[in-house]
Amino acid sequence: MKDARLRICCTFALSLAAFCSVAGAALVYLWWLLFSRRRRSLPALNTLALVAVPLAIAALAAEIASGGGLSYFFRLSAVFLVAFWAYGERVPGELLGAGVSLFGSRIGFDLGLAGEMGMEALSSLEDDIVQIRMALGLKGKKWGSGMIIPFGLATLHAQMRRSVERAALLAVRGYRGGGSICPCFTRTKTDCAAFFFAVIVLFLSIASLSDVFI
User: Fold this and answer.
1) Is pLDDT at 198 greater than 80 in this prediction?
2) What is the CA radius of gyration of the chain?
3) d(CA 100, CA 11)
4) How many domains does the chain have?
């Protein structure tokens, strides 16, 4: 999807639809099959495992404690699928333009800048994973469940250090909020169709089918 504004709206609508109901999540899966470029939308298997394993553990715990774990896993998997799609489709810098276009040069610029910094943090996280696995390989150690806590602490420390550096850089450059940018967007018929059906998916996930088909 070329138009970042439509992609943001689709991401919000589909995530809300998937979280609202199992039927909404099923429609989100169908939307993803129709409109996503599947090879580009899915991350590497290692990243999928890092997301799927904790999600499966949480769903199992919920199923044992109070039930509904399978529904939770099905719905949250759809939410993550939408997130992977949005991340795979993004182009660096477009969130800044989309924020200004949707919400103005004050709030929109701040939201777009926060979004770009968040996407940059995710990209740096991928680099951290590669470097940590490479370091473990050089030391003759294998990646296992015992490495999750040290890995989490290392990545958390690295992200906090980068956040402090970015904040200092913005302060040095005199950033106080807001800014001006002249974004230019292009869209295709497929983009419009994907947005239209995303809205339909959200509507059907919230409304009762008996209310729709009277």
Assistant:
1) yes
2) 20
3) 18
4) 1
